[in-house]
Amino acid sequence: MVYDVIIVGAGSMGMAAGYYLAKKGNKVLMLDAFTPPHEEGSHHGDTRIIRFAYGEGASYVPFVKRAGELWQELESLANENLFLQTGVVNIGEPTCDFIQNVKASSALYDLALEHYSAAEAMNKWPGLFLPEDLVACFEPTAGVLRVEACIRAYQKLALEAGASLQTNEKVLAIQAGEIVQVQTVHNLYKAKHLIVTAGAWATELLQTMGVTIPVTPTRKTFAWFEADEELYRDENFPAYCFEFADSTYYGFPSIDGAGLKLGRHDGGEVINPNTPLRPFDDADLVDLQNFIHQFMPKHGAIKYGKTCKYSMTPDEDFIIDFLPKHQNIIIAAGFSGHGFKFSSAVGEVLAELIVDGKSKQDLSTFKLNRF
Ligand SMILES: Cc1cc2nc3c(=O)[nH]c(=O)nc-3n(C[C@H](O)[C@H](O)[C@H](O)COP(=O)(O)OP(=O)(O)OC[C@H]3O[C@@H](n4cnc5c(N)ncnc54)[C@H](O)[C@@H]3O)c2cc1C
């Protein structure tokens, strides 16, 4: 049997693509090395921030706005609450690029944004402590996606639309051609088109067909802390991003009584994605604790920490493109620790690229030939 499309990696991006392609009437096979959602890749840990006034650059705004529309649509199709409108507060020095980009995004695209001095922010959110040289830009319509539930919802819809999913089926090698051949641990599959959405494994997988992409798998850590619910629960405290000259932190209010969640975005060890990650340890904790002691001083003790994988590109922009020598193979990778919020729109874009050869979104930032 020859499929219209095989998707290697049915995680954040691949599962959404599977749905949009099956909905358009394609014969789709999704293959995953594990059983998504799972804790081996980049999509576990309950929550992901979605913000629209985009600190990484205003060029992302149309794409994330489309993602927001599709998340709403998914919620209504799945009849499930996937998005929590907690608001997101972006904090940094007023002159830093991130804050400047947040403001520019809001001005260009008319996005609601509230501006607070450090003192005003501490008054609004008594759980916060800010030195006076920092400012806060609060986006009230932004919030939090329930990451695993989103993937489960896309999986259900994709299967209902006729897609097939093979789990625990690691792809070992890809052979390009008019008909692409995909060798897994168990089988050889064939398709007219291939999408590679293999997250932290994208680089090693493409190497099996002699293609090199600059995507580096990285170990990341995050943790939950006991929280005074009056100060830190999601009705009273927003999700947050802190940008400093030498570090970036992000986190979540206490949702469903889980505690304050905190992670560091920059840095992290380069890893082999096949080697089990070193578990969350004291060194990971010290870094997060230094941050939380300073900026959310009314937090409680650590509850637990976890590890996760980022896949970083050198410029931290994504890769969404056809392979130059193989126009029936698309790669969507290198989501550099800020991709989940886009995954609904990435799924739609991948379906457009396969069916129409082009997308309604401007994908020029994500081309492979920029490297
Ligand atoms: C701790 C943490 C916090 C984050 N916070 C945010 C946030 O707040 N907001 C945000 O927008 N983004 C955030 N991100 C980033 C976001 O989660 C990722 O960018 C996104 O999940 C990447 O999606 P993906 O599809 O590329 O990878 P994944 O979701 O990991 O999917 C890749 C899939 O490919 C499969 N696979 C790999 N190799 C093979 C193979 N050879 N054969 C078969 N299957 C294979 C894997 O099993 C996996 O299921 C965060 C990431 C982490 C780790």
Output the helix-strand order.
Answer: EHEEHEEHEHEEHEEEEHEHEEEHEEEH
Number of strands: 19
State the share of residues found in helices, binned by percent: 25-40%
Gyration radius over CA: 20 Å
CATH topology descriptor of the largest domain: FAD/NAD(P)-binding domain
Can you tell me about this structure?
- The structure is a single chain.
- This protein is an alpha+beta fold.
- The protein folds into 2 domains: 2-43 and 148-214 and 315-370, FAD/NAD(P)-binding domain (3-Layer(bba) Sandwich), CATH 3.50.50.60; 86-141 and 216-312, 2-Layer Sandwich (D-Amino Acid Oxidase, Chain A, domain 2).
- The chain contains 9 helices and 19 strands.
- It has helices at residues 12-23, 61-78, 97-109, 118-124, 147-160, 202-207, 229-232, 282-295, 343-356, and strands at 2-8, 28-31, 47-50, 83-84, 88-92, 114-117, 135-139, 143-146, 164-166, 171-175, 180-184, 188-196, 216-225, 239-243, 248-252, 260-264, 302-312, 319-323, 326-333.
- The strands form 3 sheets. Strands 1, 2, 9, 10, 11, 12, 18 and 19 form an 8-stranded mixed β-sheet that branches.
- A hairpin with a 7-residue loop joins strand 15 (248-252) and strand 16.
- Helix 1 (12-23) packs parallel to helix 5 (147-160), helix 1 crosses helix 9 and helix 2 (61-78) packs across helix 9.
- Bound molecules: flavin-adenine dinucleotide.
- Residues 8-14, 31-34, 36, 40-43, 45, 48-49, 170-171, 197-199, 201, 205, 220, 222, 250, 263, 308-310, 333, 335, 337-341 line the site of flavin-adenine dinucleotide.
List the helices and strands and how they pair.
Blueprint: E1 2-8, H1 12-23, E2 28-31, E3 47-50, H2 61-78, E4 83-84, E5 88-92, H3 97-109, E6 114-117, H4 118-124, E7 135-139, E8 143-146, H5 147-160, E9 164-166, E10 171-175, E11 180-184, E12 188-196, H6 202-207, E13 216-225, H7 229-232, E14 239-243, E15 248-252, E16 260-264, H8 282-295, E17 302-312, E18 319-323, E19 326-333, H9 343-356
Parallel strand pairs: 1-2, 1-12, 2-9, 5-14, 12-19
Antiparallel strand pairs: 3-8, 4-8, 5-7, 6-7, 10-11, 11-12, 13-16, 13-17, 14-15, 15-16, 18-19
Helix pairs in contact: 1-5, 1-9, 2-5, 2-9
The structure holds flavin-adenine dinucleotide.
Flavin-adenine dinucleotide (FAD) binds near residues 9, 10 and 308.
